[in-house]
């Protein structure tokens, strides 16, 4: 075996020298490719099986396939055909083709998509020809022997052959599913091949040789321990020789060698299969099918309670919450343009979707690893501040990748109440029922100058006036420039003429409603004779504002005016 590896390295160097080929930069493996599953100098499949990896790689898990579950059947079950043409059933296959477990792992290393994959089989009495499919679609098993899912442009297919014999050498071929224009078949395009070991151009497929920067394969040449439950045909719980197989593929390097600049695919499921031969038209035997969550997204957000609003025809007051966030491609694959990103913000009561804010976005360009997509929106809430949760999902083909929900307590809106009241009065003599009597005319204005809607009670004992009005939040102003865009500064006329004493920002649209100020006028006849040499009538009004949902105590404002029957001073 060592002499073979040396020959492979020399042969590969010679071919590269003669053809002037420049190999892609080597990306590090993250699983030992040493023909066993046990952790030695570095992490191996044992690390992932025990859950001790750092979580940066996608891992299918060790997917078991005990006999007689799930084998291929029917003449259409061939790799040159699309997945809907495949059929399955429960049954038996030759012992050497009977898979017992399958597994795959993927990771982005220095910008390259690295795949590790492996399988173990029931018996070692014959050549091993194993294929590994990496699907972008979520491929699964349907009813009545039908498969679910379809091939997508860019699916990756790797074939490994391990012939038995003292002088035999492995063979690796990497292909890509294309909608048309393939060279292996109309739908299969070769990206890379180590060549036939019998040919002079063979560059070596055994891991540990010269071609580890693109693809390689290896099997165990002696009995090796299994980290997971395993039972061979002979009853051994360790892997007999040539019963454990593993392979490596730098997808980015293979695409580069094939002259492709397309983004690395975004896989979601994988399949291990055994075949009757290396031929692309070979009849398929056993298979192991599982999820392969290579692609992933994360979502985060911030949110702020920004203002108060009225809904339901200005009868219900609530808070407006603005939010913005980012969806990050946290996986190793690229989502192609044209796919749909959906962000759902739980704006109100948990488990109540009626008021959720749903944002959808079609990807205009490819969404590569590490890139972010922004989103923003707003919603109503009865809380200040609310705790808010956002979910995100992204489709590619018929598959969907979802982010873990992200929850955050929004920034609260600081609310300062304010109330302004003014009063003006004038005294005069009027004729009534043949008598001349004193009459006092008054004008009262009250405005909500704070940030809290108020129920305002106006009380003027002298005028025997009491009433309650609802005032939305407002802000004192002198001109429209003191208010926001589209909001006017409404002046309140006091005294004689149209003299503007005060104004308040009055938003008449959907944001705050229209009633931020209230004006009332009236007259009364004093029950007592005014005092002083000017016959002064003192007139005072008190305004009390309350909001039990927001304020712990009421606020109060008052204003007085003295009305002289006789002018002068």
Tally of helical runs: 3
The level of helicity is: under 10%
Q: How would you sum up the major sheet?
A: 6 strands, antiparallel
Average pLDDT for all residues: 83
Indicate the radius of gyration in whole angstroms: 40 Å
Task: Assess the beta-strand content as a share of residues.
Answer: 35-45%
Backbone structural class: mainly beta
Number of individual domains: 3
E-strand count: 34
Note the gap between the termini. 121 Å
Instruction: Give the low-confidence spans.
Output: 1-26, 492-501, 509-514
Gross geometry: rod-shaped
Overview of this structure, please?
This protein has about 575 residues and is mostly beta strands. The chain is built from three helices and 34 strands. The chain has three domains: about 270 residues, no CATH class; about 110 residues, Sandwich (Immunoglobulin-like), CATH 2.60.40; about 150 residues, Sandwich (Immunoglobulin-like). Strand 33 and strand 34 form a beta hairpin. The longest helix is centred in the N-terminal third of the chain and has 18 residues.
Helices and strands in order:
Layout: H1 2-19, H2 45-49, E1 58-59, E2 63-64, E3 71-73, E4 87-89, E5 99-109, E6 112-121, E7 128-135, E8 140-141, E9 147-148, E10 156-162, E11 171-177, E12 188-193, E13 215-219, E14 244-250, H3 251-257, E15 269-275, E16 284-291, E17 297-311, E18 316-329, E19 340-346, E20 357-362, E21 372-381, E22 387-396, E23 399-402, E24 406-409, E25 419-432, E26 435-448, E27 454-460, E28 465-471, E29 476-477, E30 488-493, E31 500-506, E32 517-524, E33 536-546, E34 555-564
Antiparallel strand pairs: 1-5, 2-5, 3-4, 5-6, 6-14, 7-10, 7-15, 8-9, 10-11, 11-12, 13-14, 15-16, 17-18, 18-21, 19-20, 19-22, 22-23, 22-24, 25-26, 26-32, 27-28, 27-33, 29-31, 30-31, 33-34
């Amino acid at each position: 075996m060592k002499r073979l590896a040396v020959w492979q390295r020399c042969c590969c160097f010679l071919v590269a020298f003669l053809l002037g080929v420049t190999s892609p930069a080597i990306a590090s493996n993250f699983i030992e490719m040493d023909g066993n599953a046990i952790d030695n100098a570095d992490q191996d499949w044992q690390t992932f099986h025990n859950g001790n990896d750092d979580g940066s790689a996608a891992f299918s898990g060790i997917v078991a396939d005990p006999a007689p579950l799930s084998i291929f059947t029917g003449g259409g079950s061939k790799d040159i055909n699309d997945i809907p043409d495949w059929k399955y059933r429960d049954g038996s296959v030759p012992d050497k083709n009977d898979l017992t477990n399958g597994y795959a792992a993927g990771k982005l290393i220095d910008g390259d998509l690295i795949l590790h994959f492996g399988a173990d089989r029931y018996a070692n009495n014959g050549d091993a020809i194993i294929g590994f499919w990496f699907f972008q679609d979520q491929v699964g098993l349907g009813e009545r022997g039908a498969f679910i899912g379809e091939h997508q442009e860019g699916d990756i297919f790797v074939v490994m052959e391990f012939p038995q014999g003292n002088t035999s050498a492995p063979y690796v071929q990497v292909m890509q599913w294309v909608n048309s224009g393939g060279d292996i078949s109309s739908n299969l395009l070769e990206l890379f091949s180590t060549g036939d070991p019998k040919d002079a151009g063979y560059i070596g497929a055994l891991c540990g040789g010269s071609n580890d920067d693109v693809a390689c394969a290896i099997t165990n040449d002696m009995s090796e321990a299994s980290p997971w439950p395993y039972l061979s045909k002979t009853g051994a719980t360790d892997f007999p020789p040539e019963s454990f197989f593993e392979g490596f593929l730098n997808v980015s390097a293979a695409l580069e060698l094939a002259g492709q600049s397309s983004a690395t695919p975004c896989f979601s499921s994988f399949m291990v299969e055994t075949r009757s031969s290396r031929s692309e038209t070979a009849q398929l035997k056993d298979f192991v099918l599982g999820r392969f969550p290579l692609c992933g997204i994360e979502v985060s957000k911030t949110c702020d309670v920004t203002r108060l609003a009225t809904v339901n025809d200005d009868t219900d007051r609530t808070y407006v919450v603005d939010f913005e966030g980012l969806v990050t491609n946290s996986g190793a694959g690229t989502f192609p343009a044209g796919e749909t990103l959906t962000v759902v913000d739980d704006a109100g009561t948990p488990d109540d979707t009626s008021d959720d804010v749903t944002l959808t976005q079609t990807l205009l360009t490819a969404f590569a690893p590490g890139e972010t997509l922004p989103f923003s929106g707003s919603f109503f809430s009865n809380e200040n501040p609310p705790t808010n949760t956002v979910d995100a999902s992204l489709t590619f083909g018929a598959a969907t990748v979802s982010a873990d929900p992200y929850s955050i307590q929004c920034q609260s809106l600081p609310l300062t109440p304010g109330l302004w009241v003014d009063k003006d009065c004038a005294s005069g003599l009027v004729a009534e029922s043949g008598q001349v009597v004193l009459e006092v005319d008054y004008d009262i204005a009250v405005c909500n100058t704070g940030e809290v809607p108020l129920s305002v009670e106006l009380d003027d004992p002298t005028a025997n006036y009491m009433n309650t009005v609802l005032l939305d939040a407002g802000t004192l102003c002198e001109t429209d420039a003191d208010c926001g865009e589209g909001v006017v500064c409404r002046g309140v006329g006091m005294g004689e003429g149209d003299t503007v004493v005060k104004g308040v920002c009055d938003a008449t649209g959907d944001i705050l409603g229209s009633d931020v100020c209230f004006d009332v006028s009236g007259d009364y006849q004093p029950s007592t004779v005014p005092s002083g040499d000017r016959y002064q009538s003192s007139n005072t009004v008190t305004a009390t504002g309350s909001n039990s949902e927001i304020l712990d105590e009421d606020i109060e404002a008052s204003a007085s005016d003295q009305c002289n029957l006789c002018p002068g001073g």
